[in-house]
Design brief:
By secondary structure, the chain is an alpha+beta fold. Helices cover 36% and strands 21% of the residues. The protein has 14 helices and 18 strands. The strands form four sheets. Strands 1, 2, 3, 6, 7, 8, 15, 16 and 17 form a nine-stranded mixed sheet that branches. Strands 11-13-9-14 form a four-stranded antiparallel sheet. Bound molecules: ligand BES and manganese (II) ion (MN) (2 copies). One manganese (II) ion (MN) is lined by residues 95, 124, 159, 431-432.
């Protein structure tokens, strides 16, 4: 355990090396590790190797764990007798960068503007994951031994559902054994208001393909004689949710727990207004399920979305056809207790009951993961409160978030550990969107908070 003096030395070393920390991130962000793109397998691999080499250069024991898909990077510092073990989880894969024309500078040409670093993966998740890597490298470079054991699992398939990690987790359980998983892959509540996240929504994604005639038809000669698959698709999709944002699939809400009044009260105290939230995303008004606040809808109510739609003529000008095919990519956000597998059956039955005549369809399930709730009455949360307050200048608030990290509930079950979600991102960081960014100061504060966290956790375990 370092004295406060030597801890101050570590903090000043972190400050003096801040340019190098940023340069490292820029290098990592240049690698287009889009996990869903089969033409980028080599790049995804290269991004994994980049972090592997970073660990090895710092003298940290690290190796690649190969899978049927993209490999995981596993690293660990030496065990410390009597001290807790934490596992840092993160991902080096990123979402596709399209639409490319909307980027001010190229998604894989990291660029700083107005104190923000712009690139695909800047906040989700290379920038956030790297804060923990840098903090541990700094601890070791300072010549001090870490006061606890830190393991890292940085994977390459989070953005495509983590199926290989889910499959391999039981086999890896001994190696990954820990008291707490630490994840920085979420956000602060608002600018100036850091947060600790104790809940995430789950997810179920599908592809619905509707088929009509054997080929596209002239809409003059055939309009009125056949069902148009694009219209059929629209009707099927609109049957899923009503005008008040309530999902119409029979049984969909059966397992949804009502929100606790205490939780609702706490969230109402949070410093965000609908007006500010709406302005930040460029809409005049917000929309969601009636009877709930924006945060309640985003964090603790299940939802339905269309993520992509395709049918008919997409090129310039008019082409009067009845398309042969129509397709949609769908996602549902789930809350804890809802079973994604059960939803697949319910959705299938719902579409069967709502299919217009004259078309056939297929429904393919893609990624599914349940929602997560973590215990927030733990020494890890206390340690994080202190570490974050010192680095970000404000005490974190406890929140839930609406996004999904598919593997987290499996960590809780298989590793039987606590879970600490410390997000350094901001809600206007444009994750999954054009012009994704990470604020440079948040990157540096994240490194400082991480370095302090190891110190604070070890202190509480003495
Ligand atoms: N980092 C996000 C998850 C997240 C987003 C947590 C916002 C908290 C707030 C993660 O990389 C992600 O995007 N997950 C996907 C999972 C899906 C592709 C299976 C998601 O939520 O859409
Ligand atoms: Mn992420
Ligand atoms: Mn993501």
């Amino acid at each position: 355990m370092p004295s406060d003096d030597s801890f101050a030395e570590l903090l000043s070393a972190i400050q003096s090396n801040s340019q190098r920390h940023l340069d490292d991130l820029v290098e990592w962000l240049r690698i287009p590790s889009v996990s869903s793109d089969s033409s980028k397998v080599g790049e995804v691999h290269r991004a994994g190797h980049w972090v592997l080499e970073k660990f090895q250069a710092a003298g940290i024991e690290a190796r690649m764990i190969e899978t049927e898909g993209h490999p995981f990077v596993f690293a660990q510092t030496p065990a410390v007798e009597g001290a807790p073990v934490v596992l840092v989880y993160g991902h080096y894969d990123v979402q596709p960068a399209e639409p490319l024309a909307d980027w001010i500078t190229g998604p894989f040409e990291p660029t700083i503007r107005d104190g923000n670093l712009y690139a695909r993966g800047a906040t989700d998740d290379k920038g956030q994951a790297l804060t923990h890597v840098q903090s541990v490298c700094e601890w070791l470079a300072s010549g001090k031994s870490l006061p606890l054991q830190i393991k890292f699992l940085i994977e390459g398939e989070e953005e495509v559902g983590s199926a290989n990690l889910e499959r391999l987790l039981p086999e890896l359980a001994d190696e990954l054994a820990c008291d707490c998983v630490v994840i920085s892959d979420s956000g602060q509540y608002a600018d100036g208001q850091p947060a600790i996240t104790y809940g995430l929504r789950g997810i179920a994604t599908y592809e619905l393909s509707v088929k009509g005639p054997s080929q596209d038809l002239h809409s003059g000669s055939f309009g009125g004689a056949v069902m148009n698959p694009a219209i059929a698709l629209c009707k099927m999709l609109s049957s899923v949710v009503d005008a008040d944002g309530v999902i119409q699939i029979p049984g969909y809400y059966d397992r949804v727990q009502p929100l606790a009044e205490t939780e609702r009260e706490q969230w109402k105290q949070l410093p965000q207004t609908d007006e500010k939230f709406a302005a930040g995303i460029g809409v005049k008004e917000l929309f969601g399920e009636k009877g709930y606040t924006t945060d309640e809808r985003r964090w603790a109510r299940p939802t339905f979305d269309i993520n992509g739609l395709t049918s008919g003529h997409q090129g310039e000008g008019v082409k009067t056809i009845i398309p042969a095919l129509a397709g949609a990519k769908l996602s549902f956000r789930l809350v804890p207790n809802q079973d994604p597998k059960e939803l697949t059956q319910q959705l299938h039955d719902h579409f069967t009951a709502n299919t217009p005549p004259g078309v056939t369809w297929t429904l393919v399930e893609d990624h599914v993961a349940p929602g997560m709730l973590a215990n927030f009455d733990t020494p890890f949360v206390e340690a994080a409160n202190v570490a974050i307050e010192a680095a970000f200048g404000a005490r974190p608030v406890l929140i839930r978030e609406g996004g999904s990290i598919p593997i987290v509930t499996r960590f809780q079950e298989v590793l039987d550990c606590d879970c600490l979600l410390l997000g350094w991102g901001l809600s206007d960081d444009n994750a999954h969107s054009p012009n994704e960014k990470f604020r440079v100061t948040d990157f540096h504060r994240g490194i400082e908070a991480s370095a302090r966290l190891w110190h604070e956790i070890a202190k509480r375990a003495q």
